[in-house]
Amino acid sequence: xxxxxxxxxxxxxxxxxxxxxxxxxxxxxxxxxxxxxxxxxxxxxxxxxxxxxxxxxxxxxxxxxxxxxxxxxxxxxxxxxxxxxxx
Length: 87
Known about the structure:
Number of domains: 1
Largest sheet: none
Shape: elongated
Distance between the termini: 50 Å
Number of helices: 3
Strand content: under 5%
Structural class: mainly alpha
Helix content: over 70%
């Protein structure tokens, strides 16, 4: 019984630490650059969509589009995690 209580205490303590808010934040100028990069990637992905619409069988264009959209999503995740509070 004592082992179970110790295990529960350890699990509870680790959950409390895991739920604490993230303290890291990027400076405003870094967030501006990340935001600009996201805008650029979204504009580029729109161009790739147009190009893919003209050549739907072109796998190279489809790969470019996929890469650009994935990269924009990754930058957006970083912006959300480290910059949203500074807006």
